[in-house]
Amino acid sequence: MGNAAPFRLHCSILGPLEVRVDDRTAIIGAPKQRLLLAILLCHANAVIPSDQLIDALWGERPPRTARKNLQVYVSGLRKIFGCRLSFEGWGYRLYADPAELDLLRFLDLARSGRAAVRAGDLAVAAELLAEAVRMWHDPPLAEFCHVPLVAKEITRSTDLFLSVYEDWVELEIELSRHVEALASLDALAPRFPSRERIAAARMTALYRCGRTSEALSHFEVLRRHLAAEMGLDPSPVLRNLYQEILKGDGRRPVGAAGHPAATRTRPIQSLANQLPRDIADFVGREHEVRRIVGEAAAVTLITGEPGIGKTALAVHVAHMLASGFPDGALVVGLRRHGGDPRATVDLQREILEAVGLNVAAVHDDDVLASVWRSWLANRKILLILDDSPDESSVRTLLPGTTASKVLVTSRSRLSGLESVTRVGLAQLSPAEGIEFLGRLIGHERVLGDLPAVRAIFERFGLSPLVLRLLGGRLAGLRHVPVGHLADRLEHSESVLDEFVAGETCLRDRFEECYNQPSWTHRPAFLALGALAGPPFSHDELVAALDGTGRSAELAIESLLEANILSVPQPAANGAEVVAQSMAYTMSPLAHRFATELRGDHRV
């Protein structure tokens, strides 16, 4: 292209609008400038009249300065697109080729795939059409769907996608990959209930998977929908397919499950959304949520001390992301009740069996891992690997491709785990603590005794678990003032036993961690119990940890790695912490537990 500028450009409109220049995202913040770009990209390589652009940007009553403002927006876009964006005398044209715009690449792949079908090369055709289908990220340009000029192109692009998708999914079934096709059809068919080719493909795939009753049921769902919405009957082609399935004339399912070591015991199922319920009173973590949701990284590691809210955050974010993972969302607990680690091969086997793969005859761990990776390949799954005990357990379960997303939670920082986005959780802020406690026991009750509430925060910390247990106690003791409970906690000889709500007990959580045979931090943890209480100076820690089996400096690093110790947040004035003033802190209640253990006869 003669007008091409000497930089790499890639634009995406088959989903959210995105522009990347030399692999960096270009920031286009002004709403009308973004809308102008969306229109130009939808009509790439065509001239859009200025009057039409003005009408799209400002509607029927544009300001007097509309044409001048349009020129300003174009001038801003030229800083990104250079001579690709030109004025043609009566309108504007944005030049792009298939390597620069996903819509054009999509159309090229569709043409090549259909040409391969005509040439009889079905395997190549399926591969090309599959690549085109994977480019689609519904809904396209959702932020502009209210603009008629864009909405028209969204409808046109969606129809193009559905046509290509139907070609691809029918090819997959023809190539006996009906199991894989069905997972995609299960997600798409309910969203486009009037598309008869999609309905026919799903009926065929269900039948070939041995699910005849579901295939017939899908026909009935379609028939009722067409009658209610359009007053129509299914087409003769679909009615004939229904009769063939009813008579058992169709081809039965054949083949293995995609890996030579695995056999299929029943049709492979989608995991679907198996997330536990989101916590309705989730408070705070706005920065962490934005970071996890906005990150393109395939693996995010969430770490922090016990009770800091790692799992709650992972589940909360997973509910926000789940719609983008049509092959399912799942929480995998990496520890048994009581805290013992679960073998990753057992977890792999459990999940593979759950989706219909018989791996009972697979006894080699490496082969099982290969089956696991093969099953995950080309699937979009959202996995939460919860409470990971070590780095190796995470590595074994990670997908080999980046189509899926994994959220890992761990008490340890897992510093040796490579290529992950790290999110470390600190305690809630006092304002977040007040909001959280208010949701649990009522805001009037909290605001009516703020000095007592703040005293509790100062003495016992602001971890979500501590606040939830405290709120659970107070919610069941509506007649007890917050100040009364604060005094009781201050003078309690066994304050850990006060943090109990229902079947959840803070002491049990601490003991579960401490009693693990693999827990290597006992000597150092007990040494912390001899100190007066956090925060600790560096010199205090060095003196206390000397003689615990390793050098004091290494012991401090080990406690930081395990999130037993943490470094206080920087001062508000942003002053750097120098070596002479290095300080460390820990959960006040974890320190109380260490003090108790040190004086206990069991130590």
CATH architecture name of the largest domain: Orthogonal Bundle
The computed structural class is: alpha/beta
CATH topology call of the largest domain: Arc Repressor Mutant, subunit A
What kind of sheet is the major sheet? 5 strands, parallel
Strands side by side in the biggest sheet: 9-11-12-8-13
What would CATH call the homologous superfamily of the largest domain? Winged helix-like DNA-binding domain superfamily/Winged helix DNA-binding domain
Determine Rg (CA atoms, Å). 30 Å
Inertia-based shape: globular
Count helical runs.
25
Give the percentage of residues in beta strands.
5-15%
What is the distance, rounded to the nearest whole angstrom, between the alpha carbons of the first and last residues? 77 Å
Average pLDDT level: 84
**Secondary structure tally: strands:** 17
Can you give the helix content as a percent range? 40-55%
Number of domains: 5
Q: Can you identify the CATH class of the largest domain?
A: Mainly Alpha
Poorly predicted regions are: 1-5, 250-261, 263-267, 572-580
Pfam family, one: BTAD
Protein name: BTAD domain-containing putative transcriptional regulator
DNA-binding region: 1-96
Domain OmpR/PhoB-type: 1-96
